[in-house]
Amino acid sequence: MTSETLEGRRSFLAASAAAIGTALLAPAAVSPSTAASVRSGTGSVSEAPDLPQGFTQVFKSHHVDIGGLHLHAVIGGKGPPLLLVHGWPQTWYQWRLIMPALARDFEVIAVDQRGVGLSDKPQTGYDSGSQANDLAALVDVLGHKRFAIVGFDTGMGIAYALAADHPDRVDRLVVGEAIITGVTPSPPLLVPGPLNKRLWHIAFNRLGAEVNEALVRGREEVYFGAEYAGSAGTPLPESVVQYYVDRLKSPDALRGSFGSYRAIDTTIAQNVERRKHRLALPVLAIGGEKGIGQGVVSTMKLVADNVQGVIIPGSGHWVAEERPDELFAALAPFLSPYRTPAL
Q1: Which secondary-structure segment (H or E) carries 332?
Q2: Which of 103, 138, 207, 274 could form a disulfide with 212 if both were Cys (CB 3.0 to 4.6 A apart)?
Q3: How crowded is residue 266: how many other Cβ atoms within 10 Å of its Cβ?
Q4: What does each C-alpha distance from 141 to 65, 221, 233 come to in angstroms?
Q5: What's the whole-number average pLDDT of the chain?
Q6: Residue 299 CB contacts under 8 Å (≥ 6 apart), including other chains
Q7: What is this structure's pTM?
Q8: Phi-psi domain of 189 (left: phi exceeds 0; alpha: psi -120 through 50; beta: other)
Q9: Are 65 and 90 in contact (CB under 8 A)?
């Protein structure tokens, strides 16, 4: 990591600590029901490393029963609900650097998708429609009717499905660093080498357990480490990558990590139907300059009428961790009308 990057990270963490201090003056508004119990253990807030100072005073882990399925959600802050949906192969932890600043104005809900982290890992239900229903049920249990949502990578497809399938629930939609299967034209099989290095995992992840799980098990550092390195504009700290990799070393976690990819055929069929009804809500599409870039905006314009676009300078795929201050600067003005709606 360069000295410039380190200095920027120190500056943002200092600002995050100040934001947490502000949040502590006003306790979190969220009061999860009895179905949402505090969760401890590996993968939870209580055992996550390298969190901004004071993080655990504002944010707590909850295990939320949404009707036969339990989702792990990290919740804190005060204000209207803001749902954060991670990508692959990450967990709620990808949002840790921007959560304190967001918690000044929002009740932040950072969830582990089904199959990931501390959430349950069923055998089925990984298509975007089912996962969107998971999140709608989660917010129901937490007592909210409407909410805003931010989804990156695989979380982008889930967030799109949620806005399309539950248009009365989502106030504003932020998506980043992905395409929408069944909507975005698929790249050809034979792409240039640098692009192949970034995309080959999609086809690999769709394979059955007898191939991809068998090949990756015991070699998680090799496979997932290569994915983090190959998609980074600025490499993530080794300790962060190792934290993610360690969360993927159980058979159920490995299987769950491939779930969204194995459900792509079902999701494509769903998206063919969804795109017949364009989104009317405000959409912010975010790309990393060294990631998907303008492709995110181009994708969302295929399905939505009110799309703003932001390219994060210098960022690769892992925007929330590579450029958290720039990401927050993009989110704040877009979410401001949701935070303070017109009377």
Answers
A1: helix 324-339
A2: 207
A3: 17
A4: 8, 37, 38
A5: 91
A6: 178, 179, 180, 183, 184, 285
A7: 0.91
A8: alpha
A9: no
